[in-house]
Design a protein that fits this description.
Helix content is 66%, strand content 4%. The chain is mainly alpha-helical. InterPro entries: GPCR_2 (IPR050332), GPCR_2-like_7TM (IPR017981), GPCR_2_extracell_dom_sf (IPR036445), GPCR_2_extracellular_dom (IPR001879), GPCR_2_secretin-like (IPR000832), GPCR_2_secretin-like_CS (IPR017983).
Length: 358
Amino acid sequence: PHCTLVWDTWDCWNWTTPGDTLVQPCPWWVPQVNPNKDAMKTCMPDGTWFKHPDTNYTWTNYSNCGASQSTIHVAIFYTGYSVSVISLCLALFIFTYFQSLGCPRVTIHKNLFISFILSCISNITWHITIIASAESKQETACRITHIIAQFFVLCNYFWMLSEGLYLHTVIVVAVFSENHNLLLYYIVGWVIPLVPASVFLSLLLTQDGGRCWTNANEIEWVVGGTIIAVLLTNAALLLNIVRVLVTKLRATPSQGARTYVRAVRATIILLPLMGLHYIIVPVRPSDNHVAEVIYDCIVAFLISFQGLFVACIFCFFNGEVINKLHRSIRNFTLVHYSHNAHLNNAHGTDGPSDTQAE
């Protein structure tokens, strides 16, 4: 008997004599894999492929396929997502705790933060399940987390579009009036992303995208193309906002207009940061391994630290937030100092001093 020809969703393995271990280059088409290293699949003496003792499923040893340099950009991914989640949670707490900061624009900020938190967590989960699926049959869980991660990534950009739509409505349409319904923005941020995500899932189900659907680069542009369209739409809205603001400030300068200038400036700064990695995707080097690693590290940084950028620009660098924190810290310090002074005075009048006692 021989071990039969088999496709393990990452690579094809040929007929093999019992007792032999088949060695072949790691699949170059799988992301984060070094094709210069080797994968192994063992044919047991009874003519069956080796089964992993923990799962009792046939198993291929791809543990050596990760490039040693690739651990750098994987570490950047995990670090960036973790820092982003912590900073976004802190920003969300600040906006929730200080209710005086509450307004429709801050509500949109908070939903943007939530979408980024969910996106970071789902992407971390997906990376973990990719590693787990290489050693077991957790294919279903891996694919589900992949779709969830793509959906929340779409939500990030549609909530950024909501930021632009809100500013455009307030500045261009309603002339600095913030009294309008936020239902439209909830639909844009949470409901509309279901459409491209569903199309993406439908296309994935019609073909084999490899293990965890990591070999579905052409279909990925359903998500990528949607994001680029959203970014271009947002850019057009912001350009129109800038045009109107400049006109209004030249005609009748006002404090309200200057407040929105800061809001528009923050959104304009964030927009290229969120879209830069889609612009540089076509220039990915393919014939220089060192250049590939550098490219992967840059993309990993831009993607994983987006949440930190969002938290800094919309919260930590926000003048209103900074003033509110300064006042709170000052008030806390004064209250704490007054309380200690009161205790010290009370302690000093409780009884006679040492000199009087003598």
